[in-house]
# Entry
Amino acid sequence: MSTTTNTAGAGVSLRRSQPRYGERAIEAVLFLAALISILTTIGIVIAIIGPTIEFFQEPAVSIWDFLTGTEWTVLFADQNFGVLPLVTATLTTTVIALLVAIPIGLGAAIYLAEYASPRARKVFKPILEVLAGIPTVVYGFFALAFITPQILQRLIDIGTFSMLSAGLVMGIMIVPTVASLSEDAMTAVPQSLRDGAYALGSTKMHVATRVVVPAAISGIVAAFVLGFSRAIGETMIVVLAAGSSPNLTLNPLEPAQTMTAFIAQAASGDQPTGSIGYESLFAVAALLFVITVVMNYISIRLVRRYREEYE
Amino acid sequence: MTATDLIHYGPGPSDEKPVFTGRGHDRSPKERGFRALLVACLAIGVIFLVVLLAYVLIEGWPRLDGDLFRNQASQLRPATAGAQAAILGTLWLMAGTALISLPIGVLAAVYLEEYADRNKWYNRLIELNIQNLAAVPSVVYGILGLGLIVRGPLSLGPVLLAGAIILALLILPVIIISSREAIRAVPDSLRDGSLALGATRWQTIWRTILPNSIPGIATGSILALSRAIGEAAPLIIIGVAGFLTFNPGSMFDRFTALPIQIYSYASRPQEAFIVLSSALIVVLLLILLVMNSVAIYIRNRYQRRW
# Structure
């Protein structure tokens, strides 16, 4: 605001007569509100770091065993602290989910961005939004009560709990994330690129796959990365459908407990504060938090890159 | 934008027909096959949704009765068990979450849009931080709540206030991001007009910008709240019980909520509990449907395009 412009020769002074303390106070209040987000991050770090350090200071635990040990039996009498079984379960369910979500989400995005008529888009976009709005506990229930007994058990030999069932349903849950972000990236590609390719005689498929997708690739990859971080952080689906015993395997037909499922199980078991079980929950959470923050940062960087290109 | 829950409505930018469409080649089998593949991708999502809705409706139908709302939860009598405490708990939780997250979220959005100087490092840090928080898994918020609010420094225990604070922090980034978009959509001419008439910055915001962006803020906030209502993971982490047989009376009472109740019924193998959890899922989805319809109504009725 330029209230103090020097207008030569004006009879009245345009200079502000008194400072407005109210305005300054309001700005300070608004800034504090924005600061709460920073405090949240600091709070998360503080909440996680204390018990995690205590966990690694326990005589029974060493960082090396934690990262390389193959048995995770914290809640049993004979305690082992190798986090690998939880990590392999998280990886397996995540990979299955991405194998479902990436092709389906990208296909849906290409259709919505390049092929769909405005009317078709008006119908399909809200459907994807509804899919995105369904609570994850509902997805988990559906995996356990319908997908496993009614579909998977009719096709293959599989138990009540399996990483396959959880991963498949998690994949569908992530489809709207991948589709909506990829579609945003594709609609940001300038129309002139498409027109140029058509003028050179390209077919619609060539324009979509060789012009639009490559031009939007960093946004699309960002969508994949975000899908990845949603998959490793997803809790209710794996708690309900993937089982609750740590299991060092990459076989999707077997049940296994993921990192998030362990956190949920250990927390609902009401561990006394300061016990090794309580501390282990925070150590696993620390690992999860670090992985997702790195993933989110990569995704944010990628999105920024593609925005700069076309604005 | 990283917040996946922010949803774009309305027609996309490429609605006008391009001059060249490649239509002459559209008939080749390869082209048709590719198009069919893309349609199949969308169809999988649509079919999944239809089957899911049909399944919970058919399965839950026999128990969508008055007992569900009149009776309390029971591990022994699934045929007449209800979820009164959970339904009321969810409504309390919704009110508490909204009261905490709305003012903070809107004020933060006003700061970032109207005051923040993007050249200052701390403002850029706040923005980056909000983008990151929007994608932090909900269990991590549960851990924050467990370590600092339920136990540790605040030691509130698993009460309504603790649940509301955690869910409010969880959806805060989404509310901030969508409120910023609503504020940004108010044209500069309104701002300039108000300032030219001698209004101060805050008067301009309070009397011109906020009234004009309320529909957008309300829509985004309701959608964010409906996300909070469906969350189970953070509440499980802080130790919210699955079977509670008394209704909450204040923000300092222990409580349970619909997603938790669904989870604890769903993890029991007997058929009667599956029916019961299906019925509760229908109730939860109906609450979400009402909230989303209100959001869409507000958007269509009040949102102006400049």
